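Reading a protein record of the kind used here takes only a little practice. The integers have meaning only within a learned vocabulary of local backbone shapes. With that in mind, consider the following protein and its fold in token form:
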Amino acid sequence: MGSIPTQRESGNRPSGPVPSPGAAERPAASAARTSLPGDPLAPAAARRFARAALADWTARGAPGAAELDERAADEVAILVNELVTNAVVHAGTTIELVCRLEPPAGDEPAAVVVEVSDHHPSRVVRHEPRGAREPGAPEYGRGLHLVATLAECWGITYRAGLKTVWARLLLDAQDVLAREDEPGRDDSLQLGPRAAGTPTAPAHGTPPGQGRDWVNRGALSFLAEASDLLAGQFDEDMIAALAGQLLVPRLCDWCAIWLDPEAGGPVGEPRLARVWHARESGIDELRAVLEKDPPRLPESARGGPVPMPWPAPQDDGEGAALAYRMVAGGRAVGVLMLGRAGMARIPDEVTGLVEDFVRRVALAIGAARQYTRQVTISRVLQRGLLPAGVAEIPGVDSALVYQPSGEGVAGGDFYDLFPGADGRWCFALGDVQGSGPEAAVVTGLVRPWLRLLAREGYAVHDVLDRLNKLLVDDGVEAAEAAARMVAAAGGREVAEGPQARFLSLLYGELVPVPPESGGGVLCTLASAGHPLPLLLRPDGSVRAAAVPQVLVGVVEGVAYESESFRLMPGDTLLCVTDGVTERRSGRRMFDDGDGLAAVLAGCVGMTATGVAESVKRAVYAFGTTPPEDDLALLVLQAR
């Protein structure tokens, strides 16, 4: 895999490889840049752009252009093609391409630098291991081996919202080979492994000259960018993968990460989640060795470096290895082990920097696990809050859309459609104040209360009266206690004291009318603080089918009223939550100026399912971002 360049360049363009020593005296580089869509046509367009840039530099006599022969143009085209192809396949966002011609300076030959940026930094750049590939298996960037072979060095820069893959092609290969045996070079802190046959840097390596000065100057930048990248991840395996890419080969030749079983889960051995090596071919060999002999750290190790035996056999020979226990919130979450070939001891500057980095990785893993617990609790609650199935009402077609706004928080919206007493069919659409466990527990009480009261034969207004009394009464304090217990399990804090327990509710019942009496259904309903239902007639007219009343659970002793009307064959009743009516686009809301009624009027002749899908599409199209509130709508259409 690639590396992260050692320094952040100034300006707004993506970071590229760090200039070699003495490059400060280089004349200014020529540069060409373009934006490409992330589609299959991008690689061909990128090749044409790169060749045009090289031709322009040659025609203008730009410094260094004299070395741009046909072979160099072909190699630049290959680099551009492979890097853009990887961005298309593994990111799919808009692609920024930059080509730079660096003129020669001193002993440094001219070079062409290619930078390809995408806007999906969480998508890992895949580099398929060498060897046979199973028939039909997906292609994982085999072309990066070409990049590694052609380029002097290449790597990856991660920034918040941006990932740049770069490659540097020297225009005088003989000069590169001559420098391999340059006398007097001190590689003791050249943070990037040197592979056999690679002159100045490994195929995946970081440019040379990153000694002690880099550790002193670049540590804060490295940790800041690592924090930005890790903080946005909620998958512990992805965090382990990113940690490996951040470390190798910038600070070590290889690393491995074990993750401990989560507290409260099944007891088991730590899991080897990720192995990363500067040489792709060394990953499988290293994994096999480490799986047989994982590190055993003493209990006293709480984040500091612990020297470990060098895992052998390896083609890298001998070297120094360290292991760090990852601790988050006082609890061990795993172990990170790294190694550096050809060194008897890893310098203190590096071990201290890695220790700070390991703390950030551990915190990210702890946050990801807490998020996963919360999502799991939310899913369990959501399954329990919603009915297992929706009843089919004789003579009525129904359609339902229910979409919670977030995966990690249980929604406050709920619905139900069930048989009541004496041949009546009942429906409900509600929205509990707030969200999360507190709202979920109240929803879990309201739905069964509604069913119980309806099956006891209470009329619509009586059901709301009694439900209001139950919510106002102190007898639901158990709901508050349950909410606190659920929230605590998910790592959330709940304020002490009485919690709000009110909700908006649209509740009604349907009674089929015999065909000899004209057919359709008799509908009786009441709206308590809820968006009013809309009735669509076959002639395209739309009217509100209820009058507004006070929220349930707010005013003690309130008397609710219901109203009845007949749904004739072809009539459609639309019921929604405020996630529909209050959908925002800037300062405007979806229902401003009777926007919902206008959409419904255009649904004449549609089935119940067609009406539901049409309204849903209109809601999503109203704004440029996904809805921020739960979205629920119920369509009832008389046959």
About this structure: The longest helix spans residues 348-385. The chain is about 30% helix and 25% strand.
